[in-house]
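Progress against Task 2.4 (sequence-to-structure conversion) is shown through the following example record, which the project officer requested during the mid-term review.
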Amino acid sequence: MSKYKNQPPDAYRERILEAAQTLFAQQGLEAVSMYQIAKKAGIGQGSLYRRYADKGEICSDLLGSGSERFLTMLEQDLEHADGRQQPWLEHLQTCIVQIVDFIDQHAELLYTIKTEFTGKRQLTQFEHPIFQRLNGIMATLLLRALERGEIRSIDIPFTATALISALSPDLFLYQQKLHQAGKTQIADGIIKLFVDGIRAERKS
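Structure tokens generated for the chain above:
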């Protein structure tokens, strides 16, 4: 959840976000500095840094309620899945496609959030709240599939983390840039590894 969600209106914050969005659209995320954002917003760098420690926090705020709605949707869908007859592996496959679609829409913002979070704090991407929640969803789906005999015996925590790693924005951007892969091709590749690759053999 964004830490800015329930804050009262802040004129400086709105100016910062508007300036950042304009600069990102004009120059690309990587090319824009915090200094440029402050200058474009017409505020001092001190005012900027009092609100945002780095560019990743600005990206988190820009992503804002969209990421919260998406994660909540996945979690609620998981909660309501017990009453359905759908196999858990099918649910996992649908979830992967939804996450890839979300990454496709917000890849550069997510990449910057991850880069700033891991680089400045020397933490891994898996400790970021977004990735932790996704990891929990993946682990639950894998566990349910294992309990129902849909997949082979696997290490659930390791597989969930490996799956989240495959769903990282940098891998997505790499596949797009170097291999011209579209989101469908990327999703299909992940599904072959983490759905088809662990599926239990059918008993004859």
